[in-house]
Amino acid sequence: MPNQDFAAIQAKYLMQCWSAQRDYAPLPVKATSGCWIHTSDGRKIFDLRSAHECINLGFSHPKVLDAMRRQMESVVYVSDDFATEPTAMLAQTLARLAPGGPDKKVFFSQSGASAVEAAIRVARLYMYNKVVKGGAQVDAPMQYPYPYKIISRYRSWHGSSAGAASVSGDPRRWFHEPLTVPGVVFAPEANPYRPLFGTGPDATQANLNYLDYIIEQEGGSNKVAAMILEPVVGSNGIIVPPAGYLKGVRELCDKWGILLIADETMTGMGRTGRMFAIEHFDVVPDIVVMGKALGVYCPLAATIFSEEVSRSFDDNIFGHGQSFSGHALGCAAALASIQVLLEDGVLENCCAMGEYLGTRLHALRDTHPSVGEVRGLGLFWTLELVRDRETREPLRRVTEKYSETIVKQLADYLLREKQIYVPTDKFGVWVVPPLIVTREEIDFIVAGIDDALKLADNWVAKAN
Hints:
Layout: H1 6-13, E1 29-33, E2 36-39, E3 44-47, H2 50-53, H3 62-72, H4 85-97, E4 105-109, H5 112-133, E5 149-153, H6 162-166, E6 184-187, H7 201-217, E7 224-229, H8 245-256, E8 259-263, E9 287-290, E10 301-305, H9 307-311, H10 328-343, H11 346-367, E11 371-377, E12 380-388, E13 393-394, H12 406-418, E14 420-421, E15 428-431, H13 439-463
Parallel strand pairs: 3-14, 5-6, 5-7, 7-8, 8-9
Antiparallel strand pairs: 1-2, 2-3, 4-10, 9-10, 11-12, 12-13, 12-15
Helix pairs in contact: 3-10, 4-10, 7-8, 11-13, 12-13
């Protein structure tokens, strides 16, 4: 007989991520369906973060579950000394779907962080093969055997493993310090709402000029191996880059002969209305990282290498590996999910519902003084909350990510009173529903947020 007090057991024995453990009190879940979580005590909760942004197709999609059942009856997992049909077909599918030529190669892992680790290691090994073994020339005397530095951006999150956290600008990186992986340099992000270089096209070019300066001062092609970025910043604010920025980054990478890594862990699999967010900007990266929604109901991630990068390992060892790489069950789920995205109108729904959601959220800004900006793409949205619209002083600063602020109180209120689940540690209101969301469900979400924002408005009125 199932243990009816499993939530208490989980609270006692499970370590909850990024949290103090004393007050851990998970809600007992009886079932999930579509966009909804059904608890054992009868609550029906809308999951407005799509289960850590993993469940783009919603819970229990029948076509994906059917594909998983069929695969479980044949092969679940074998090592890569053997081939399985779903592993092979998913590698081919991703190689052809990702921007660039069709003959890319793919490495499979189980999380976005692991996929980022693979991207970093391969970028450095590629430079080693190119410079040390291939005798390629760099633009300055070579004091170190090969380029190794990775340039990232302050407003970024790439995962919690050692290398991935080290290239993350997010405050969660601070938990790793001072033992972060060396060779990482941070540049400013391109945030039109909080610009560091003025506004308009001149500001974008000034940002790129500063990035060019950073690359040169860090050694240029002598020292720098790659730049990693999220095409649309995720956890740190859902920041859509200004026009021309990503193309400018690509041009700088080409100028200095360094690789461009696009981390699509959160934005891939249709989240922004296209399979990959970087497609909106007509830029082809050298390495693409996928995770989260790729395997839907199975832990699965992928690192996709361009033809040039992958050819570097034709006769040189690919010095990376992981147990369960290419897991057949996960690959079968991913193949089914891609088919649903491309053939069942999910991407079209994402674009249509994203436009509707954006319109509804922008209307909230007109009535709530605590909302500084509404921004997003596809079904990837946030409301940035501010104390003052003129100064744009945030209601949660970077150093307050885990502090008890009005932003956390608003998220707690939405769950407790409105049956809407959003994360409590973001810098605004996280609005990231499954891609199958309906207009009626969006109306339900917006009504709940509308009511919750009164808490922030009252806080702002008292504080000012």
